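Human: You know discrete backbone vocabularies at least as well as I do. Show me how you would write down a chain together with its backbone fold. No explanation is needed for now; the record alone will do.

Assistant:
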Amino acid sequence: TISFESNKVFGTPDYPCIISNPPLNIETNIESISLPGQVQACMIDPVNKTVAGFMAPGVQLTGLAANFILSDGATAFVNGEIQESGLTSNDFTSSLIYTILSEDRFESSEWTIGITISSGLEITNKFDGRFNVFPNPTSDVVNIVNLDANQSFDLFVYNIIGEELFRITKTYMPAKIVMSDYPVGIYIFRLSNPNFLELHKVIVK
């Protein structure tokens, strides 16, 4: 392994650039993120590199420290300041840009974090009546049906702290999702394609 010093990155102290075999990770993703006071899971969109957070009324957004997991070896910055999960606080009253630097220090991406004040755990669908998700609560299978059975969609399933559990892409109606292997709790189903997006809270009992 050969190491050498690089120039400063995003205004922080120098980081060593490392040539190694196997090569270092080049991914720049936010794998999971949660915020104190959130009332439901943050929704992570890896394609558009956005995160939507849902906070309870009255939560002060000016000094929140996000808990996050990044791609292996990656580092997060906000306005040039390195971020430490659960320790570095930021003002989330408006959209915040997280710059994620890859482990190999050559790749970076910008993620937009947006916060919505919620009245509770209830999720309002952006397109009412498009999907029917049942039974809910469930202890086994969740059925997803849509009037337009010919239109494919992507399904992302998250737990309440925003961790993606699994995804199913380019699937068609009707769909059966087995949840019996997951613990009792609240899960978020994100159903989308280029023409629509819906969020559903599903309770596993």
User: Anything to note?
Assistant: The CA atoms of residues 26 and 102 lie 5 Å apart. The chain has two domains: 2-117, 131-204. The first strand starts at residue 2 and ends at 5.
